[in-house]
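Summary for the steering committee. One of the milestones for this cycle was to obtain a three-dimensional model of the protein with nicotinamide-adenine-dinucleotide bound, which we needed before selecting residues for the alanine scan. The sequence and ligand used are listed below.
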Amino acid sequence: MEKFDVIVIGAGPAGYVAAIRCAQLGLKTACVDKWLDAEGRPSLGGTCLNAGCIPSKALLESSELYVRLRDEFPEHGIQPGRARIDIAAMMARKDRVVRELTQGIAQLFQANGVVSVQGHGCLQPDRSVRVTDDTGKTAAYRAEHVILAPGSRPTQLAAAPVDGDRIVDSTGALAFEAVPGRLGVIGAGIIGLELGSVWQRLGSEVVLLEAQQDFLTMADRQVAREALKTFTRQGLEIRLGARVLSCRVRRNKVEVRFQDGDGEQSLKVDRLIVAVGRLPNIDGLCAPGTELALDEWGYVHVDEQCRTSLPGVYAIGDVVRGPMLAHKGSQEGVMVAELIAGRHATVDYDLIPSVIYTQPEIAWVGRHEQALQADGIPHASGVFPFAANGRARAAGETGGFIKVLSHARTDRVLGVHMIGAHCSELIAQAVVAMSFGASSEDLGMTVFAHPTLSEAFHEAALAVHGEAIHMARKAVRRRAE
Ligand code: FAD
Ligand code: NAD
């Protein structure tokens, strides 16, 4: 039985990062992964690279370019002629981006000496890992430490069973061969909004059915309100409080029956995306008798440092509590590698940024205002609109705002919430500032380059104390209320 210091099960952003960091720290490391691409070849990177973050962002970029060419170029005095969409070329580009990145992980494994093992890994009661490859051949490996990083899979909905053709999950929605005339999406969460936006930009009429009465409950209320207004103006039809009762595929159409505040209704669409969350991949991860404890929601139970109930076994990424985000899993991967190597390491779970890559983008870090209110934490708020920012006006990207929340007594920044162009990049400044315990006054005293969108962050911090320069004092106060 081949022996390692560390075996990682899963080569998504949690597992592959953990494996590389372990190898960098001098640990003999193997990483087991079962993902095969459409041609049946091993493809590292997990959901993130193969069917998540990367392909979705490739399509968001292509569809955004199309909209800009069609709607915005003429305003800049550029007449490109009639824009035409070639879906096959768009998909081929997306697949190329994915291939290059997944091959990049294989190269990184090789460069760092990580042994890549293809197949399904199963933790045994004696802590060895049994791997079954795609031909059915099995092999056993032993290690001092095992890191479980098997990720997650889409939640199924009994009322809308995915058939991979008319009714698809997020993976299917990344590979439509034509723009659906009418597209239904169940779930107006992150995937629903991002993928709904892709196809809406390319010409689909998109209807999102969301079970909750409120929109984007994980975001700050003020941001969620602005987002709902903007997405509705863009043409996304978002039906809140909608409960799907059944779906029937007939003559290449999906008939969706649902109930909302207006009673029972039906909707006919060409394709339907089911995007109602994701569940941890537990099935087949452990052999009977292994006794790995799960938490009450079915995730692998871990402590703050990702230790499971089994000595020497860690779990990271989507399979454990916390937001299902690639960067959260990667940071846990680094932490666990450091711990195994005998170093001190932690993850600051309060400062994990979230981004929704719609247009405008939505991003936040820290606590939102409704959470501060609910916990009775005295706070002050500063809001600055991009419409008052010079660079945003020059770029024609004036929608949205940045909101800074700080403690009313200490002035320490407790949360930053943004909606607007390039917020996925801007949020990093807030994460850094909060990591160093910045106050809004610290940010106000910092020099930001002009003209940049970042100046809106500066002004929002100044607005906490009613001191924003490019906004009338009255407006500053009104927005803060
Ligand atoms: P995964 O990436 O799911 O990887 C797990 C790997 O383990 C897979 O390759 C799987 O095949 C393999 N595996 C599972 N069980 C076994 C086993 N027993 N043996 C061997 N191998 C096994 N997050 C972001 O932060 N930003 C985004 O923009 C973003 N966009 C997304 C878009 C979409 C459409 C989706 C679906 C998700 C998106 N996410 C995004 C979420 C992100 O993809 C996940 O949070 C992230 O991939 C989780 O990483 P992970 O390593 O825990 O698991
Ligand atoms: P989500 O939790 O973001 O949204 C699911 C939505 O579906 C929720 O609004 C929920 O209320 C709704 N819903 C649940 N059951 C329903 C039902 N029966 N009918 C109608 N609506 C229903 O989950 P998701 O969009 O599927 O994404 C899964 C995970 O992937 C998320 O946790 C997210 O963290 C991650 N992800 C992240 C990004 C990013 O970081 N930009 C992008 C995509 C996915």
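Key point for the committee: The chain has a mean pLDDT of 96.
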